[in-house]
Amino acid sequence: MTEAAVAHGHEEHHQGGFVTTYLFSMDHKMIGKQFLLLSLFMMIIGGLLALMVRWQLAYPEEPVPGMAWVPEPYMYEGIIPPETYNMMFTMHATIMIFFVVIPILVGAFGNFLIPLMIGTRDMAFPILNMLSFWIAAFAGVLLISSFFVEGGAAAGGWTAYAPLSAAEVYTGVGLGQDLWIVSLVVLGISSMMGSINYITTIINMRAPGMTMFRMPLVIWSLFITAILLLLALPELTAAMAMLLFDRRYGTTFFLPAGGGEPILWQHLFWFFGHPEVYILILPAMGIASEILAVFSRKPIFGYRAMAMAMIAIAFLGWVVWGHHMFQSGMNPTMGMAFMTTTMVIAVPSAIKTFNWLGTLWGGNIMFTTPMLHALAFVSMFVIGGLSGIYMAATPVDIFIHDTYFIVGHIHYVVFGGSVFAIFGAISFWFPKMYGRMMNEALGKIHFFGTLVFFNITFFPMHIIGVGGHMRRIYNPLQYEFLVPLQHWNEIMTFGAIGLGLFQIVFAVNFFWSMFAGAKATQNPWNANTLEWEAPTPPPHGNFHQIPTVYRGPYEYSVPGEKEDWLPQAQPGTGVAAAH
Amino acid sequence: MLPWLPENVSSYGGQIDSLFLLIFWITTIVFVAVQATLVVFLFKYRYRPGRKATYTHGNNTLEIAWTIAPSIILVVLALLSRATWDEIKAEMPPVDVSVRVYAKQFNWDFIYPGPDGVFDTADDLTLENELNVPVDKVVKLEMLSRDVIHSLFMPHLRFKQDMVPGRQIDGWFKATKTGEFEIPCAELCGFGHSGMLGHLKVYSAPDYAAWVAERWSN
């Protein structure tokens, strides 16, 4: 877009009315907010499903309070039957992974931040961008509709192992599993569209002076994530197509009766699935880096190492998938190979953790709400990462595979990691997105409640996992050796309920602040990156004038400077001019 | 963590538990060190007006150090794991007793070859959900599935093996103690996955002989 066209666009601001401004916007900022709202809505559904799973585990076969209205055969006067239970954890995971974490990190923040932080007016392909949101929304509708078809929603786990998922007879779920497949394929299309947009925009549209190594780390993380998505999703789509064909069109890719191989599904799924989990964590790592630097008032420690570590994680992520399959019956020699690569991939994450600590060292640390979430990210991610080492050791994995130890690990990295980063990102960029500040008191109450109840809910999972408590079981009391562990299930359910209640504080803060929060200044955090050069909130076209970049993104507390911050776009020498 | 492990009655369980314990100590030390460092830094470097942070972009020596140290620890863990993994999963020791297992929705069929020691003969015996073995003897399990993937999990034996339809997977264990132990299924296999439960009965030598005599008494 030329300068003249942008200026013209400013005057014609919002001439399109409600539909083109809020529904079919081609502005990356509005599309980002649409992704955020869709995802927050899906998070409520995913969270409620989790609460019901937790209820059943703590109080097996007791009616869930307030759910007596659910008709049979889904529930029996509030009591969850095993078929429904399997649907609940399947859909909880599917929703949280595909319709909450990825759309918020990649759809919402990828969209909102990339053009602003690299200093351009919008994405390379605005129409494609708009389509990517609506296709994702359609995928969401398909997924939720699967609850209401005969046979109910998918119930084979979010991993959908064959043959359980490959033939209706094994679960009793028919159309629901097919809708699950189609929904994920459609969502994949949306993500691939987004990836094309992000990669093109980052490569081609950076502002003058914004070299790759002057890009903020969150942009690096989104760039790498977009490449991972682009490479991994076509493979998943192929696997999903094969599964759908087995279910509906008489093929037997995964069905042994026709010569098929069930383990093939696992290879195909996890070849996508492992890069997928790095897709879940890399943008969160980028966000943490941004927030930690700003509120330590210090440059990121080891910027190049941080960027290189993310690239290393992305590369190595392609060769570790077999660690999900150590006990699958695949050749044990492959187990050795995957154990080795899995141990190696722990190293770049360790490097990043030490660099975050290095960023804090010698800092001037401000405990704002975003900073608290970023600190919790580091702390909780360390726990999740360390628990992974147990599983990487194949003999130990013999015992803890498919136990709650794994479930604990998952939640420490995805909730303790990604979701805390999401809360940090929302509270950090909310002023720029909505022109108002979120309430700090509510923010801190939400943070501390979430941190405490998160740990109450998920830490004991390591304990019961070590006790041998399997995952995806409906009633632990059916096993004598699990009865002594049952009080942990009750504690964790108490934690989950508390965790859920504290999210109400966030919801209140988010929506109230959007309309009635204190008006935000252009740069309330005194941060250096380019999004803070734009007005708050930015208009179509983002910047009055495209900024020129003179330095890296983390020039805080530069000696000889009067202020403890030095924006990327501010001309002038300063000590850091040569950086 | 270790008190929470079920009692180990497996000949190779000690190796698994030792590796577990080693990883527990390494991760606990790292955990405490990292979290303590974090807390100390948050206190020591909290914001005070008029103070400026230490302006630095990093330290290459530290980068190298904290790349090499974790790498060494992890490579050592990998090397320490190899022997145990190979012993349990890749190799089959001399077998004393064989049992064939068919997993199906939702129970375990244990097939004993009988006194002739050969499967698929007239003296084969099928017992539902009951695995009877002698103590201190190598038991080979020939594992198959009739429908979907199941997973034979014996927590006290530190034994877990997915059972995949369309192929036979062999595994082994040696119980070091008599008693009765549970055999859950550890891979989601449908609505009856929970409660799919077998029982392992480990007999002393005389008791096992008596069981055999009673079962094949003709």
Structure characteristics:
heterodimer; A: 579 residues; mainly alpha; 17 helices; globular; disordered N terminus; B: 218 residues; alpha+beta; Helix Hairpins; Immunoglobulin-like; 2 domains; 5-stranded mixed β-sheet; 3-stranded mixed β-sheet; 10 strands; 34% helix; 28% strand
The chain pair with the largest interface is: A-B, 100 and 86 residues
The coarse silhouette of chain B is elongated
Q: Which segments of chain A are poorly predicted (pLDDT under 50) over 5 or more consecutive residues?
A: 1-13
As a percent range, the share of strand residues of chain B is 25-35%
What share of the residues of chain A does DSSP label as strand, in percent?
under 5%
Structural class of chain B, by secondary structure, is alpha+beta
Q: Sheet bearing the most strands of chain A, described? A: none
Total strands of chain A: the figure is: 0
The DSSP helix count of chain A reads 17
CATH architecture term of the largest domain in chain B: Sandwich
The name of the CATH superfamily of the largest domain in chain B reads Cupredoxins -  blue copper proteins
Quaternary status of these chains? heterodimer
Mean pLDDT across all amino acids of chain A: 95
Helix-strand category of chain A: mainly alpha
Percentage of residues in helical conformation of chain A: 55-70%
Radius of gyration of chain A using CA atoms only: 24 Å
Main beta-sheet strand count, sense and barrel state of chain B: 5 strands, mixed
- CA radius of gyration of chain B is 25 Å
CATH top level class name of the largest domain in chain B: Mainly Beta
**For the terminal residues of chain B, how far apart are their CA atoms?**
50 Å
Q: Helix count of chain B?
A: 3
